[in-house]
Structure formats: C-alpha cells, structure tokens
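Re: weekly structure request thread

Next one in the queue (144 aa):
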Amino acid sequence: MGKNVVFYRLTAKFVDSAVDIPEEVSNIMYYTLSVGHHTGVADCLSPCLSCSMDTYCSIVSHIDSQEARYKLEGIMRFGEIQIDKVHVPALTKALKKELQSLYLQKTSKLYAVEITWLTQFLDLLEEVRTQSAMYMMGRLTDEQ
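Done, posted below.
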C-alpha cells in the first residue's frame, strides 16, 4: 500500500459550546478569539488537494528555495505541516518558479500531474493569502 499527501483547508470554525461559559468570563473568551487565540474553538478542515507521495517528493525535490523546500519536507519528517499566511510568500515564489520551469521543458507532458498539482496548490495559497484566518494542513496518509 502506498502513501498519499493530502492537503486540507479550513472550512469552518465554531466555538465549542458543550460547556456553558459563565457570563463573567465570556468576554475574555471572545477577546481571545478576536486576537487570534483558539481558546474553545474547533476548526473544521476539508480535503482539497491530494497526490501520491512519489509525485509530492518529485515536486519538492526540484524546489530551489531552501526555505520553501524545508517547509514542504515537513510532511516527510513529521507526517504533517501547517501552512498559514507567514509561509505564503516563500512558497508562492518558489512554486511559481518550479511551475515555470516545468512549462519550459520540452518533456512537460511527462510532468502533467505535477503541473496540475502545482497550479491547484498555488490557487490554495492565494486563498490563504487573501482570506482572514484561512490556513491549510498537509498530512501524509495511507493510500485508499
């Protein structure tokens, strides 16, 4: 059985209301939410992009930027990574360069899967860049 890399995107957030919050501390909880802390918040992630581990490794191995490559290699080291707004500039620059390189190769038909994946991943990075509180999670999974 092979491995896949699956990326998930944040699709919803909600406050866990299984426990009643006393009125006198509810303002503190809403303040922590407003400044970005996840106290009592559940994130709902939905799968949005996947590929085989071989395809993912092929893409990552061609990235020139050490910063971008190191970030994406986190899936190989830890089994998952989180990508948020901080990571977008370096990843976007490196992946656009890789995509351009694939387009310029005469054998680009051999890289159709990589080109498609990179294009879709860049679209997801743009969503992370432009939408507040948006992030992605990449995870190594068993092939189904």
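The CA atoms of residues 7 and 142 lie 13 Å apart. The helical segments are 23-34, 53-61, 66-78, 88-104, 112-130.
Next request, please.
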